[in-house]
């Protein structure tokens, strides 16, 4: 019997070094996923203020909430890449890196010699990622691309909101979509490198990513001839599927997916068993055609109940349901607490609550949830690791090349 202690498993990306010239959300959120899985991520920022997302707000104990969310576990070096000496430092970092990620304005990376094609030719084992708004070619390639603009271009806003008013998603959906495809693209390229020994280019655009996420309304429109209508919290082709006010002022969302569920809803929740077989309600097609009447019946029944009682009745009847929670209620969600999903991470403003990454590795090591870095916090340590002397570092700092 083997009595030796088991050797702790490393995180999946332990030993992988990522260098990122990144800003805002799309690239930083991608590289944070890599950091969570054990990669060393070196974030290259401008000396004069750094990643502009640092200045979005001061909601996180004086720090920007976007920045705190997307940048934990990284090392920050403040480097002027327009200065040849700054680019020389960057190439020193790239010489020992496995992955490079950038989301500069279209054309800026190429002007600095930092586009993926150039870097992959110079560093054959490097995985080089270009994250852009609209891609490197085509008539939109040089358009400025912020999240809300891409949500509009991708048609997301046209299917989100009420019949009267389109609205953007309340989270940066285009940024997140691009980030997650960049993240998975890096993993795929690293697997390929393990077989071929060569890195390679990864290209992700926000428009391409969000267009993929638009798959249901896109295929519905292309192949059915009609764009799904905006229905607020309701579902375009299922009824009842909406949020309904309860007697205590809350709102409860329920979803009836088939006619068997409707019969249970009518009998056990609405307490109107006759509606189970009524031709105006018995099928989803009928309920959708009579949506106003269906919603009125359901709304009247739930409006006489408190939220807890409504949820209890729906769950007892096997009807899918949820509370329409606020963000504060999410932060206090009992399911997150019961599953011990919260941790603390360090920051220049002190400890901050943060959720564990969604990717679980049961039985393996805990994810790396390092501190949110201050601008240039690791500049000197990184330069000394490249062999620079104190005098050389002082000269670069005096000339504004580093901070």
What does this structure look like?
The mean pLDDT is 96. The chain contains 17 helices and eleven strands. Strand 7 (241-245) and strand 8 form a beta hairpin. Helices cover 38% and strands 13% of the residues.
Indicate the percent of residues in helices.
25-40%
N-to-C CA distance: 56 Å
Tell me the strand order in the biggest sheet. Answer: 3-2-1-4-5-6
* Number of discrete helical segments: 17
Low-confidence stretches: none
Biggest β-sheet: count, sense, barrel?
Answer: 6 strands, parallel
- Backbone shape: elongated
- Computed Rg: 26 Å
Overall mean pLDDT stands at 96
Topology:
Layout: E1 17-21, H1 26-36, E2 40-45, H2 65-70, E3 74-78, H3 84-94, E4 99-102, H4 108-111, H5 116-122, E5 127-132, H6 147-153, H7 173-196, E6 200-205, H8 206-213, H9 215-224, E7 241-245, E8 251-255, H10 259-269, H11 284-289, H12 291-302, H13 307-316, E9 320-323, H14 327-331, H15 334-338, E10 342-345, E11 352-355, H16 379-385, H17 390-398
Parallel strand pairs: 1-2, 1-4, 2-3, 4-5, 5-6
Antiparallel strand pairs: 7-8, 8-9, 10-11
Main attributes of the structure:
single chain; 403 residues; alpha/beta; 3-stranded antiparallel β-sheet; 13% strand
Task: Characterize this entry briefly.
This protein is an alpha/beta fold. 38% of the residues lie in helices and 13% in strands.
């Amino acid at each position: 019997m083997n009595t030796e202690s088991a050797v702790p498993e490393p995180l999946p990306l332990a030993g992988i070094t990522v260098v990122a010239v990144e800003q805002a959300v799309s690239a930083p959120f991608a590289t944070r996923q890599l950091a969570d899985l054990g990669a060393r991520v070196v974030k290259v920022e401008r000396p004069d203020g750094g990643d502009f997302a640092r200045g979005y707000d001061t909601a996180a104990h004086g720090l920007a909430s976007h920045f705190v969310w997307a940048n934990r576990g990284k090392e920050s070096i403040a480097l002027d890449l327009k200065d040849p000496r700054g680019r020389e430092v960057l190439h020193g970092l790239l010489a020992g890196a496995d992955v490079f990620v950038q989301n500069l304005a279209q054309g800026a990376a190429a002007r600095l010699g930092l586009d993926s094609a150039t870097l992959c030719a110079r560093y054959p084992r490097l995985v080089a990622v270009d994250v852009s708004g609209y891609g490197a070619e085509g008539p939109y390639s040089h358009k400025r691309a912020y999240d809300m603009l891409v949500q509009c271009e991708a048609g997301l806003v046209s299917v989100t909101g009420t019949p009267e008013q389109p609205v953007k998603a309340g989270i940066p959906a285009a940024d997140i979509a691009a980030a997650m495809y960049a993240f998975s693209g890096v993993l795929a390229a690293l697997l390929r490198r393990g077989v071929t020994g060569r890195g390679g280019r990864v290209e992700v655009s926000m428009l391409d990513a969000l267009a993929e996420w638009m798959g249901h309304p896109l295929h519905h429109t292309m192949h059915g001839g009609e764009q799904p209508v905006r229905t607020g919290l309701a579902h375009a082709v299922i009824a009842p599927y909406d949020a309904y006010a309860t007697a205590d002022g809350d709102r409860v969302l329920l979803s009836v997916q088939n006619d068997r569920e409707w019969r249970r809803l009518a009998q056990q929740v609405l307490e109107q068993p006759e509606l189970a077989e009524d031709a105006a309600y018995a099928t989803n097609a009928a309920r959708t055609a009579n949506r106003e009447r269906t919603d009125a019946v359901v709304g009247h029944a739930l409006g006489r109940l408190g939220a807890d009682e409504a949820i209890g009745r729906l769950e007892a009847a096997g009807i899918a349901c949820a509370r329409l929670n606020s963000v504060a209620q999410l932060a206090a969600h009992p399911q997150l607490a019961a599953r011990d999903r919260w941790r603390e991470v360090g920051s220049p403003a002190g400890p901050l609550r943060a959720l564990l990454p969604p990717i679980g590795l049961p039985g393996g090591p805990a994810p790396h949830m390092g501190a949110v870095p201050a601008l240039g916090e690791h500049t000197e340590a990184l330069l000394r690791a490249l062999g620079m002397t104190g005098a050389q570092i002082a000269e670069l700092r005096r000339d504004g090349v580093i901070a």
